[in-house]
């Protein structure tokens, strides 16, 4: 069977590279869920998942998700039908994820915070067939899914998790396949898997790092589970490992570095929620050994609340922003070898760079490490050309490898700029290579892409500027990152009024709400100016705006200290 090419919207890997990845074993010939099943058979009675609501063994997880897959198929969903996911860190999310994959469907990894602006666009882009939402959140996602369905003819099913009761037209994942014979469900899953091509799309992830609206990232079966395998290997995980995750599990980092990575090696996933108090309690209770801490949790990890966790956590991986030296020292006790801290740099497009276990302390503290797959390739290029820069020089980090996409889905024009002529993905991040021993470690030095990294959620500046400009009272808009102690960065909008009237924050929020824009993207500060500063080539001078907001914040802090 050959992979479905989605009318040319899926960019295939070049044949020579695909052949090399197959030959090296970095690509798998099996679909993602066949790999899960293999692992489940090997580790049947081990604990696969711990959440605040309960635990599942590998056997329970495997059997339950076989039945969900059968239930989805019986409902009428067919192989390669995309299913939008808007859910949080719940056991039912994991069940839904594997159940959907086993039915041969494609999870579309959107966020529970996304609204019509995002979901409408993505649903159309991938021709989504079903919409899975979590009930019981402060915003009624079940109602929202019905609303989305009205405007999208391809969307035929609403699925839910956590719904307390059956509602007309909504299929509860928890009920699916409960009365289907287990052997029959397994046979059905195996039939679906037999039809799959390794180069078929397994999952659609979303890009945070591009221009305009979010781009869709197609991850394929050949590489997706193995991405998790490489990650688990990089940290030496095994059946004794208990991996805690607090960030949204649906992010690519959640799936690849926690869910799939843990389940590839028989480890336990301790699935917590972003609330640090609840998360640290669950971690302490579950004897977590490993955790990934995003920069939105750096402060919490530094607080005393994290101390009970350190009784069992052996490895802390920090990611998302420069690691404060003091935090690193707290989490890394190399003298007694009881605690190890390292870093991770990664992206939904693929490439993961992590600290090797045997890296010297300075490399662990100051660099993000080395790529995780043998065939991963990185280059530091001049941002305005394809010229490679000498070791030590800061340039654009570009990468290529077995699990890094060769192109966004259905975005041919964008792809010509986002990839080099020989297929390296231009990350938009600035990096330099530093030598420690015989290895060249990657240090992240900033970025050239125009986004705000709000505690790990990426906000695209251009996307918000265009939305702000749709207000009749805004003549010009420039959105920049402003530093924030807790989240790392927040969005600040510099606005030029159309007339003399300056809108209030509430009016701007109302405008973005009416456009259905996810709240985490709304600017959290407005600065009204008579005109935007320009560079000598006439572009908005964002560097001067970034410097301006830092100055304003510093002046306010000083004022606060003196008042
Ligand atoms: P996403 O695809 O949402 O995971 O975002 C990927 C982007 O997050 C990267 O291209 C970087 O801009 C940023 N990022 C990820 N890890 C790090 C890190 N350790 N340090 C700095 N930025 C990071």
TrEMBL record:
Keywords: Ligase, Nucleotidyltransferase, Transferase. One of its GO terms (biological process) is fatty acid metabolic process. Transmembrane segments: none annotated. InterPro entries: AMP-bd_C, AMP-bd_C_sf, AMP-binding_CS, AMP-dep_synth/lig_dom, ANL_N_sf. The keyword S-adenosyl-L-methionine does not apply. Belongs to the ATP-dependent AMP-binding enzyme family. PANTHER family: ACYL-COA SYNTHETASE, MEDIUM-CHAIN ACYL-COA LIGASE ACSF2, MITOCHONDRIAL. This is 2,3-dihydroxybenzoate-AMP ligase. The lineage of its organism: Bacteria, Bacillati, Actinomycetota, Actinomycetes, Mycobacteriales.
């Amino acid at each position: 069977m050959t992979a479905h090419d989605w009318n040319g919207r899926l960019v295939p890997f070049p044949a020579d590279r695909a052949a090399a990845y197959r030959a090296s074993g970095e690509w798998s010939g099996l679909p993602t869920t066949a790999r899960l099943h293999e692992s489940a058979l090997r580790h049947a009675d081990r604990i696969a998942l711990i959440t605040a609501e309960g635990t599942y063994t590998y056997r329970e997880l495997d059997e339950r998700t076989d039945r969900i897959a059968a239930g989805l198929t019986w409902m009428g969903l067919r192989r390669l039908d995309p299913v939008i996911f808007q859910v949080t860190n719940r056991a039912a999310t994991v069940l839904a994820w594997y159940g959907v994959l086993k039915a041969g469907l494609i999870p579309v990894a959107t966020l529970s915070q996304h609204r019509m602006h995002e979901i409408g666009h993505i649903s159309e882009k991938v021709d989504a067939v079903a919409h899975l939402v979590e009930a019981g959140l402060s915003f009624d996602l079940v109602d929202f899914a019905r609303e989305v369905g009205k405007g999208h003819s391809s969307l035929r099913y609403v699925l839910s998790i956590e719904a307390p009761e059956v509602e007309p037209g909504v299929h509860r994942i928890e009920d699916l396949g409960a009365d289907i014979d287990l052997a029959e469900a397994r046979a059905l899953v195996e039939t679906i898997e037999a039809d799959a091509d390794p180069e078929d799309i397994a999952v659609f992830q979303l890009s945070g790092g591009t221009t305009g609206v979010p781009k869709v990232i197609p991850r394929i079966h050949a590489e997706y589970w193995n991405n998790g395998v490489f990650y688990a290997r990089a940290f030496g995980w095994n059946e004794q490992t208990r991996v805690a995750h607090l960030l949204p599990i649906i992010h690519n980092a959640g799936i690849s570095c926690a869910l799939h990575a843990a389940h590839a090696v028989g480890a336990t996933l301790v699935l917590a929620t972003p609330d640090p108090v609840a998360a640290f309690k669950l971690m302490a209770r579950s004897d977590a050994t490993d955790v990934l801490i995003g920069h939105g949790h750096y402060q919490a990890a530094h607080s005393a609340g994290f101390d009970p966790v350190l009784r069992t956590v052996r490895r802390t991986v920090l990611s998302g922003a420069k690691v404060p030296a003091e935090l690193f020292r707290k989490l890394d006790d190399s003298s007694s070898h009881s605690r190890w801290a390292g870093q991770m740099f990664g992206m939904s497009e693929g490439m993961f760079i992590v600290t090797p276990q045997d890296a010297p302390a300075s490399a662990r503290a100051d660099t993000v490490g080395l790529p995780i797959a043998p065939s991963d390739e990185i280059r530091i290029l001049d941002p305005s050309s394809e010229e490679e820069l000498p070791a030590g020089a800061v340039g654009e980090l570009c990468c290529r490898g077995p699990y890094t996409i060769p192109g966004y889905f259905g975005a041919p024009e964008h792809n010509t700029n986002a990839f080099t002529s020989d297929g390296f993905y231009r990350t938009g991040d600035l990096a330099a290579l530093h030598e420690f021993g015989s290895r060249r470690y990657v240090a992240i030095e900033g970025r050239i892409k125009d986004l705000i990294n709000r505690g790990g959620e990426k906000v695209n500046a251009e996307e918000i500027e265009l939305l702000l400009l749709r207000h009749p009272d805004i003549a010009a808009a420039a959105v920049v990152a402003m530093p924030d102690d807790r989240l790392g960065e927040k969005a600040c909008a510099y606005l030029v009024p159309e007339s003399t009237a300056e809108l209030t924050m509430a009016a701007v929020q109302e405008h973005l709400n009416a456009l259905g824009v996810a709240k985490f993207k709304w600017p959290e500060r407005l600065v009204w100016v008579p005109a935007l500063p320009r560079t000598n080539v006439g572009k908005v001078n964002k560097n001067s705006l970034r410097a301006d907001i830092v100055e304003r914040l510093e002046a306010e802090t000083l004022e606060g200290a003196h008042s």
